[in-house]
Task: inverse folding
């Protein structure tokens, strides 16, 4: 991914607990993701991705609970097609998640690069990524609690931005920050949509609360369609037009 090296001129390297921050990978409205390094005896070092809640949100109960929800839910998924969460912590710099660092690109960046070159992602690569996405999501959908009952986990934000294509050829799902499960701590406010509208199943875009795994499978279909067609499926000039397409328009044949 494109990274921005951190300025170390003033005060030396930045740290979150025992992790040394190397670069900023991405930043959104809720958190920033850093490339971090853990060092040890004999020159040992290992890289991680650390997602830190923005410090100004540390006092906002809803955001903190949503952030901790992601850790609690995703940490229970153990599958090669899901980016694992290894640790959750709180430091003077705020709450943070430690994730395995995946060397590679988001599917969104790969598609953008192909578009810039007026070419397409090779169909076998797109299909392999789609299969990997489905395998990872199935593991999430089958997540069970300590009594063996399905927890009803739905990602709700499957999109090219949340799909990592590793240099090892493996595609992984990440970012369960808006996932929904029967046992999650926080609940979506009535009428509040979470996720990206252009990748929503019609029932999700319509605001139906009782979503199940089929919404994620539908979103995977949108991602795969776009990867093969090298164009957007539902995205329109504004959100109202996008919503209309999601709810009403037939899906064109590839």
Result:
């Amino acid at each position: 991914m494109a990274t921005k090296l951190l300025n170390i001129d003033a005060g030396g390297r930045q740290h979150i607990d025992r992790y040394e921050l190397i670069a900023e990978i991405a930043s959104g409205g809720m958190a920033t993701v850093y490339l971090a390094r853990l060092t040890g005896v004999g020159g040992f070092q290992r890289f991680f991705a650390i997602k830190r809640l923005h410090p100004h949100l540390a006092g906002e109960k809803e955001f903190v609970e949503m952030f901790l929800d992601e850790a609690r839910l995703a940490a229970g998924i153990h599958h090669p097609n899901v980016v694992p969460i290894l640790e959750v912590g709180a430091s003077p710099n705020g709450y943070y998640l430690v994730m395995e660092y995946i060397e590679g690109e988001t599917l969104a960046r790969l598609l953008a690069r192909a578009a810039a070159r007026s070419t397409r992602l090779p169909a076998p690569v797109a299909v392999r990524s789609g299969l990997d996405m489905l395998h990872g999501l199935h593991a999430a959908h089958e997540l069970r609690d300590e009594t063996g009952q399905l927890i009803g986990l739905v990602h709700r934000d499957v999109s090219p931005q949340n799909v990592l294509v590793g240099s090892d050829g493996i595609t992984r799902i990440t970012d369960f920050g808006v996932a929904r499960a029967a046992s999650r701590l926080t609940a979506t406010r009535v009428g509040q949509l979470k996720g990206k509208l252009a990748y929503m199943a019609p029932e999700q875009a319509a605001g139906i609360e009782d979503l199940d795994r089929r919404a994620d499978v539908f979103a995977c279909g949108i991602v795969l369609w776009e990867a093969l067609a090298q164009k957007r499926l539902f995205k329109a000039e504004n959100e109202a037009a996008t919503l209309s397409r999601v709810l009403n328009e037939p899906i064109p044949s590839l």
